[in-house]
Amino acid sequence: MSETTNTNEEKKPPLNGRRALPSNNSNEEENEVPEMEAFGLIPRGFNPKDYLRVVDIHMFKEPHEINKQQHHTDKYYSPKLIVRRGQPFEIQIEFNRPYKPETDQFWLEYLIGRYPQQNKGTYIPIIVGNVLKPGEWGAKIIHKENNSIRLSIMSSATCIVGKFRLYVAVWTPFGILRTHRNSATDTYILFNPWCQQDAVYLDDEKEREEYVLNDVGIVFHGNINDIKSRSWSFGQFEENILDACLFLMDKAELELSGRGNPIKICRVASAVINSRDDNGVIAGCWDNMYTYGVAPSAWTGSVDILLEYYSSKQPVRYGQCWVFAGVFNTFLRCLGIPARLITNYSSAHDNNANLQLDFFLDGEGKVDTKITKDSVWNYHCWNEAWMTRPDLPVGFGGWQVVDGTPQETSDGMYRCGPASVQAIKHGHVCFQFDAPFVYAEVNSDIVYSRREKGGTQVIEKIDTTHIGQLIVTKEVGGDGMMEITEEYKFQEGSAEERLALETAVMYGVKKQTTQDTVYQPQMDVDMEFQAQKAVLGSDFKVTITFRNKSRNYYTATTYLSGNIVFYTGVTKNEFKKHSFSAKLEPSSSSAFDVVIKSSEYLSDLLDQASFHFFVTARINETGKILAIQKATVLEIPTLRIKTQGELVAGKEMSVTVEFTNPLKQTLENVTLRLEGPGVLRTMKKEFRQIPMNSTLIWEVKCVPKRPGLRKLIASLNCDALRHVYGELNVQIQK
Asked: Could you tell me one molecular function GO term of this UniProt entry (predicted)?
């Protein structure tokens, strides 16, 4: 029987025994949605026109209209609505007659892919309610006029990123009536770095403008002694680029239900950016033979490459590291993931990830190219993407290395990352994905060895400072170079640097010694770390305790690193470095206190006042490492809210907000906000100064509108102090 007989029928994807539905991994494909879904037999004389009917849907999708303005998507060259998740947007529905909430019932349906399912987040029915919960799907009516209603719709802060189809469904006694398929109402939903509940939330507006909204960048290249730079056009807002980026996820066959997770998206994108093993976007070529293609240095930006790939579906020739990184950056920024392009000068390409580059010399002392497999790149470009890492311990969110250049396989494919920059710095390379490889790129030693006539190897020289001498990216808001070497590694030759290296070795980065020794931890010494409970603005102490259970006398070189972290576990910066030598008497415990002064942390403190400490100690007599990490949070003072007078709807009442300044400094330019839905409109008051230890009292008069249980919420904000809140439940009588 010939194979061509069933070409007319639709190709049915193969089912396997484990799933009821085929995999849903294409945003492009759709299913048929019935316009009339009958509940049973439809009686004669039933006329759908008798019921509420949708005449038109207005999406407010022009660049100057409210949605694209508020969602920072007005730059996208696209006629469709583009919004960011976890933030409300508006649409207007016009019916054939005025909407009567008592009898009419309608809801919205957002669908994505060919097999929409509610539990997978690919079918989202939204009932219209009275309140929008932040970061959860919902809709409420904000305006009614004649036959039309205006809705405010909130999307989930974790929802799938992609292109959704919108239907409006109306309930009738005999069945559900739906609007017909209309691509003009398609809605793109992107990541939202402006939304605190989004995994890619970035707290600095200048950084968001740079790492999400800037569509040009700079590539630093050349070498460590001769740094060159060139511009690169990312073009993430150009026509069809958003569709091309969504196509990349289809190409990588990423399940739609995984497309709300920036970790998964980065991981599959790092594979699909290069053409090795999956026919991805760019074919790499490093041999100067660019026949039948464009030389990597000829590209000026990502747009041509992505559009060519989107139309031809074949790898675009040719790229080298900065081309992969430029296109990857476009992809990330286009979807709303903050991203930047990084250059590492003198980058190690360590084929067996043993943290040393083996250069074998021949009899004359020249490098023997036949047996030397490792290499040093003058520079290598990769990307960093900003996100939380709920899959790792606290402290490892923030910038993650992702690399689309095909160098080595990871889990069977050419891809790399996301790997936490903070984990690489401290040597905690046990955390996924590919941290040992990136650690080697910036930290390898170069070992030059010569083979003697008798076959024995003689090590001639070890160069520990050559690799990863300088790591840079473009500065925020300008074209200059910003050095970020210290984000990746401690000062070359410092005790901390060697400690991080030994920690990395302990966690399984292969580091060959002359005779391969198996890692044996220090069993007879325990180390513990305690942080004193502290209120914001006060000094506190942390205690490192060693228990030496042996009969030996030890000394421990100890290093404490205190970091300020976002509440999501993302590190902002190191505010405390302290190293000391601890003498450990046999069979005894020794405790060492380190005082953390408020002056050390206050200037850099973030809203949530949380710290993350790394402690690493080397037992000098044995060379063994002890490592520990701990997160701790300061107590933030709160606002006190009180009410006076009768709490009755329609009668005047008074609300007071009180706050005592706990810091050892005067607070300046303080803004207080007070709001209570149904009780009072949001009110703002500025205070020039609050001296230390003094109490501020703000009294507000208001007339509550609605009876019932209401909440008053107050917040205080100034440069030195953020995330100061107070709330009070009030019962308003009729």
From this structure: protein-glutamine gamma-glutamyltransferase activity
Q: Hey, what are 209's tokens?
A: 């403008």
Could you tell me where in the chain the CATH 2.60.40.10 domains are found? Answer: 36-190, 525-633, 640-732
Is 245 among the catalytic positions? no
Task: Answer yes or no: is 646 a known binding residue.
Answer: no
Which residue type does 146 have?
N
| Residue with token string 């050559």 | 466
16 is in an annotated binding site: no
428 is catalytic: no
Given the residues 403, 416, 426, 524, the one annotated as active site: 403
CATH fold of the domain at 205-507:
Coagulation Factor XIII; Chain A, domain 2 (3.90.260)
Confidence tier at 5 by pLDDT (50, 70, 90) = very low
Among 1.10.10.60, 2.60.40.10, 3.50.50.60, 3.90.1280.10, what is the CATH number of 36-190? Answer: 2.60.40.10
497 marked ligand binding residue: yes
In the DSSP assignment, the letter for residue 689 is E
Check residue 296 and report its DSSP letter: G
The per-residue pLDDT for 518 is 39
Phi, psi for 688 (deg, rounded to 5)? -60, -50
CATH architecture of the region 640-732? Sandwich (2.60)
What counts of helices (H) and strands (E) characterise the chain? 11, 40
Q: What is the pLDDT of residue 3?
A: 42
The secondary structure of residue 101, as a DSSP letter, is T
Bridge partners, 657 (sequence order): 641, 698
User: Which residues face 525 on adjacent strands?
Assistant: 548
Q: Which position among 321, 334, 381, 416 bears the catalytic label?
A: 321
CATH topology of domain 525-633: Immunoglobulin-like (2.60.40)
Tell me 354's DSSP state: S
Q: Which residue has the tokens 């006694």?
A: 173
Instruction: Look up 516 and say whether it is catalytic.
Output: no
Of residues 715, 716, 713, the one with CA closest to residue 730:
713
Q: Is 308 among the annotated ligand-binding positions?
A: no
User: What's the confidence (pLDDT) of residue 454?
Assistant: 74
Q: What integer is the mean pLDDT of 320-332? A: 95
Amino acid (one-letter) located at 157: A
Q: What local confidence, expressed as pLDDT, does residue 423 receive? A: 94
The ranges of the chain annotated as CATH 3.90.260.10 are 205-507
Cβ contact 164:189 at 8 Å:
yes
Residue 430 tokens read as: 């046990």
pTM of the model: 0.72
Nearest CA to 375 out of 352, 353, 354, 351 is that of 351
